[in-house]
Amino acid sequence: MCKKVTDDGKTRLTCNLFRRGASNGITMQTEEQELIRRIAGGETRLCARLVDRYGRAVYTLAARIAGCTEDAEELTQDIFLKAFSSLDRFGGRSSFSTWLYRIAYNTAVSHARRTRPKHYGIDERRLAALPDSEADRLEEWAEKQERLDALNRAVERLDPEERALVTLFYYEDRSVGECAAITELSEGNVKVRLHRIRKKLYVLVNDEMNGTE
Prior knowledge:
By secondary structure, the protein is mostly helical. The protein has helices at 22-40, 47-66, 69-85, 96-115, 124-129, 132-135, 138-141, 145-156, 160-171, 176-183, 187-209.
């Protein structure tokens, strides 16, 4: 599937926000742990450094899930307030970015459930009958602008949890394990859901292109 994304919640250009080299990652993790310890100890002025580092990524994820840039601005503030108020509960069992993304995921999904209209339903029998080889044609559609535009619109019509998984796995290039940690699903469940999402996107795009939606 094409990895396309923009900051306004639309799906356009690939943006890899957290990937770093191994040694770079270790250095940053050590520095981050010290930063978190100092913030938790009362040096709240240092919060700005974490906002500078992760603000854009959190905003982008919130915008994609919520489907509204205005809401994403408020959500981003809410997400960081939640994170900073619970820093003493960050145990370091995962990376800080994974922990922060989990807060962002839960906050944005809860908001979208309350505010977004009912999502487009698809007969499960259609998805079950669709061969995997057909769903895999999504890769080819990335090369055709008309199909790509339809794919962008289809992503926006997914439910919040589905949009979140598409964002994390395809656009942010997160591993299945990282997606599982953020969404608190099992790795097997993440794989099943991603497989179903690909089929759902194929059906949504095909219906639009054929005028049958």
